Structure formats: C-alpha cells, structure tokens
Amino acid sequence: MQTADPNANKARHDPLEKVPVAQEPEMTEGVITHIQRFSVHDGPGIRTTVFLKGCQMRCAWCHNPETLRRAAELQVFAELCIGCGACVERCRRQAHEVVDDSRVFHRDRCVGCGRCAQTCYAKALVLVGETRTADEVAQELFVDREFYESSGGGVTISGGEPLMQPEFTRAILALCKRNGIHTALETNFAREWSFIEPLLTLVDLFCVDIKLLDDVEHKKWTGISNRQTLDNLRRLDTARKPVIVRTPVIAGLNDRPEQIHAIVDWLGSLFNVIRYELLPYHPLGAGKYLALGHNQPPQWFKAPAPHIFEQLTQIASLQRKP
Ligand code: SF4
Ligand code: SF4
Q: pLDDT digits over 248-278, tens only?
C-alpha cells in the first residue's frame, strides 16, 4: 500500500522561476528609486521593500533627498568628475557645458533621460528614478517568495511617499495579495482618506510616522499639517487595521520627554496600534543633497544622546498593547 505524500499537492516554488502574477500583465506605471531585498526593518520577517519616488512632506532632516521629487533626476558628484567631456557630447539638451575648462551642469535644462549617466565612466553622474510597470516590479518581488514564506515576511511599499503614486501602489499590492504575499505600507498618511480606503483590503500592516504631535511644530519642520495623518489613523482604527506607529527622533527637535508622552497619550485612544517605535536620526544624506542641487539640512540635526534615547524608548513602551 502506498503512503500518501502530504506535500504532493503543495506548490513547489523555484525562486529563479518567473511566477505568473495575473491573467493580464498589470501595466500601471510608476517611478521607483530602488528595490531592496532581504530587508529586516520594514515589517515582520524577511522582506523586499520597494521605494517609490515623490513625497509631499519636506522634513528638514530628511536623509533620502533622492525620494523627494517624483520625476527621475540626475545626481552629480562633481568631485568624481575627470573632465572627459563625454556627457557634453551625449546630452541633447545642452545641460552639460564646458566653461573655462570646467564642466557646468544646468539642472533646469535636464529632463532626466539618463543618457549622460550611461556614458560617465567615472560614476560622477548617477540617474535616480526609474519608470517601471507594476507587473515588472512584482516579478522582481516574487523571486524571494520562498524567503517570505519561511520567515513570515513579505513585501513592503515605501518611499518617498507611496500614496503620492496611489494607482501604482495599489497595483503592486493587488498583485502581491493575489499571490498570497504579506504586504506592508510605510507611509506618512498625509493624503485624503479616499486614497487609503481602496488599499484596506490589500495592506496587511500599515506603518505610519507621527513626527510631531504639535501641529505648529509639525508644519514648521515638515512643511505641512499633521491633521490628515491623525485623522487617517483614527479611521484606520475604526477599520480595525493593525498599525505600527513610528517617530524618527532628532536631538533638539522632538527628543523632549513631553513630546513623546504626548504621542503616547494620543495613541492610547486607539485599539489597532500593535507597536510604537522610536527611530534614532541618521545623518546620512548630506552628500546627496548637494548632488541633487538641494540646500543641505542644518548641521545641528543629530541623533539623540544614547541615554536620552533610552529614556524616550521607555516612555514609548508605555503604549498599551492590544
Ligand atoms: S562624463 Fe562624467 S567624468 Fe566625463 S566630464 Fe561628464 S561628469 Fe565628468
Ligand atoms: S539626464 Fe539626459 S537631459 Fe539630463 S543632463 Fe543627462 S543627458 Fe542631459
């Protein structure tokens, strides 16, 4: 008598195999900066995170300035330039010019086509931002499905702000859900609820930033109000969708105990918060600001002192667990 193999009917998944994701390819297009595999900080388990380009906030301390603008753009690392002049030849818009033996870049003429970056051997020119279809992104995400299944992980859509490309975000999430993959959305939540509601059935875990509870300070440091974010968090609570709330902590800006206490108290009225996390600031983006033609953030932005961060972490842990 033959013994039935309990695994006989289980789908065997070759991670290198192209996974069929839908009857028709999902052709909705969007702009991403990159896709990061084996991420362990963007939700549970091993994850792949897609970083979308474009954000409506202008946090003064942002360390990912390459995600601020929606369109593809050129990073220019002038210190790496060897003066070969190849970019001047290659650009059809005369965005690169040689003036008095020096290469000059006119950002206002650049349309982000990337032709010059392809020809720059010195890597002084790097295009950031790539237009992809949701289907193309999904094919790349599904390569690591085995790891998601074995670790309890999945896919995270991040940015920038993914809600600035709502259709593209929805399309990627829908493909993931259709293929049984856990999904998380990292967002500042500062968009109308009508952009979020269609995602409720497609997102397993929301990760939402509250940067400051005081709205005057919030406007001062991010450029916009936090009212929409807080209103959406209440609606998400009513919808009973789980959420991890996060605060990036910057010394001298939002590292006073009363500021974290205020957020903890506000979250106390919600039932869906599974965790409140503090993230110490990392001043990583200064060089990127110059390469993208932005003003640099003030030098005084620093991570909080370790003993202060420890104190704040204890306050944050007062958040009631459901
Ligand atoms: S192609 Fe690169 S190395 Fe050559 S001049 Fe242009 S920026 Fe400089
Ligand atoms: S990205 Fe395109 S438009 Fe911009 S400078 Fe390079 S070649 Fe010119």
A: 999 999 999 999 999 999 999 999 999 999 9
Length of the chain: 322
Map out the domains of the chain with their CATH numbers: 29-69+133-316 (3.20.20.70), 73-128 (3.30.70.20)
Contacts of 48 (CB under 8 A, 6+ apart): 35, 36, 37, 38, 39, 140, 141, 144, 148, 155, 156
Say how far apart CA 142 and CA 152 lie, in whole Å: 14
Q: What is the pLDDT of residue 23?
A: 54
Name the phi and psi angles at 308, rounded to 5: -70, -40
Q: Buried b / exposed e across 104-122, counting CB within 10 Å, b at 16+?
A: ebeeeebebbbebbeebee
Is the pTM value of this prediction over 0.90?
no
Mean pLDDT of the chain: 89
- Å from CA of 81 to ligand 2 middle: 15
Pocket of ligand 1 (CB under 6 A): 81-87, 103, 119-120, 122, 124-125
